[in-house]
Design a protein that fits this description.
The protein is an alpha/beta fold. The chain folds into three domains: 180 residues, Rossmann fold (3-Layer(aba) Sandwich); 70 residues, no CATH class; 78 residues, no CATH class. 47% of the residues lie in helices and 11% in strands. The protein has 13 helices and nine strands. The strands form three sheets. It has a four-stranded antiparallel sheet with strand order 6-7-8-9, covered by helices on one side. It has a three-stranded parallel sheet with strand order 2-3-4, with helices on one face. Strand 7 and strand 8 form a beta hairpin. Helix 1 crosses helix 8, helix 6 crosses helix 10 and helix 12 crosses helix 13. The protein is globular.
Length: 348
């Protein structure tokens, strides 16, 4: 099987499978809500007994901004980060519904969903299963991400951590990303544990007796993000003689704030014609193009693609290719984005 446990043994932590639910039903009944309250206390105690400051962990999360009694919909792959997301949400007193996506890339992927469901059962968390089809080929990681989010609820929460944030910042940097790319993710409903470290999610799972799954593709050196995570960040820590993750994380927060100011300025810039867009300063035009293309496609354009777009705006080539099958084109005095399904979306 291509999926293994993070550890060969369960260790000394009491296993959550010993916690028996009084009902297999996940209906919103008083009995289930009572169980959730008892479970929240039990989880808090076990995490604290492992030496972690639970209040500090929760202070770095977004849960306190959720409305009381609201339900957190969590994307759960079975890895340590997504399991820790569920645990911390339960500690914070939230109801959780987990969503798992089977990309059908590996033969054993359906078994992984069974294992995730088994892990979640003692947490009294319902698992909703989704299946998408991602064919082999280039840009597999990005196509899988798009397929995953196309089937998940719009208000889904993910288990991205501070380490993932730094990985994303560096990945976007080498791709020529601008302010938005270097600001990366934001602590929010979508990323409620972004302020937590990867080593902490591992420790949270161990403290409550959960055994995370390991995705073998995370060790594939053919995936650029894996090399950033497994080689670049450790090398930067070695060169700097310190843990660079908190430093780069704080920088990303500053850049995101800068991006918010730029976005506010751009929101007041609204060219009505292609001629007006041509007449504005090139840097303003490039920021406007990146913002509009992201709004339509969710693509974060690199410097290279931005320059190609500017050439189209300025009367050069009539069209330029964008990643993942999108196209920017000039047609009948307008600037449009052609979607992979050939639908045209007007920008100006």
């Amino acid at each position: 099987m291509g999926v293994t446990n993070e550890s060969g043994s369960r260790g000394s932590a009491p296993h959550l499978y010993l916690l028996k639910s009084e009902s297999d039903s996940f209906d919103e009944t008083p009995a289930v809500r009572s169980l959730s309250l008892d479970l929240s206390t039990e989880l808090r105690v076990r995490i604290a007994e492992s030496g972690m400051d639970v209040d500090d962990l929760l202070a770095r999360c977004y849960f306190h901004r959720f409305d009381k009694g609201s339900i957190l919909r969590a994307a759960v792959s079975g890895g340590a980060d997504s399991l820790a997301l569920v645990v911390l949400a339960k500690v914070a007193g939230l109801e959780v519904v987990a969503h798992n996506v089977d990309h059908q890339i590996r033969k054993e992927s359906s078994l992984e969903a069974d294992m995730v469901e088994e892990q979640l059962r003692p947490l009294a968390v319902k698992l909703v299963r989704h299946k998408v089809k991602v064919n082999p080929g280039p840009n597999l990681e990005e196509r899988a991400r798009q397929a995953r989010y196309s089937t998940l609820p719009d208000d889904i929460s993910t288990g991205h951590t501070a380490d993932d944030q730094v990985e994303t910042v560096l990945y976007n940097l080498v791709r020529g990303g601008g302010l938005k790319g270097l600001g990366a993710m934001e602590l929010s409903v979508r990323h409620p544990i972004l302020g937590v470290r990867k080593y902490e999610t591992d420790a949270i799972c161990a403290s409550v007796g959960l055994i995370p799954l390991t995705d073998p593709s995370n060790r594939d050196p053919g995936i650029v993000r894996n090399r950033v995570r497994n080689e670049v960040i450790p090398l930067l820590c070695d060169v700097a003689k310190r843990d660079v993750v908190p430093i780069i994380y704080r920088t990303s927060v500053l850049l995101r704030k800068d991006q918010e100011i730029v976005s506010d300025v751009l929101s007041k810039f609204s060219p009505n014609t292609l001629k007006e867009l041509r007449e504005c300063p090139p840097h303003v035009a490039s920021m406007w193009i990146r913002a509009k293309v992201f709004e339509v496609t969710d693509l974060q354009l690199s410097w290279f693609h931005t320059q190609k777009c500017l050439e189209v705006v300025q009367g050069g080539p009539a069209a330029t290719s964008l990643p993942l099958g999108y196209l920017l084109l000039r047609k009948s005095g307008s600037l449009k984005v052609q979607l992979p399904n050939k639908e045209l979306v007007n920008l100006v």
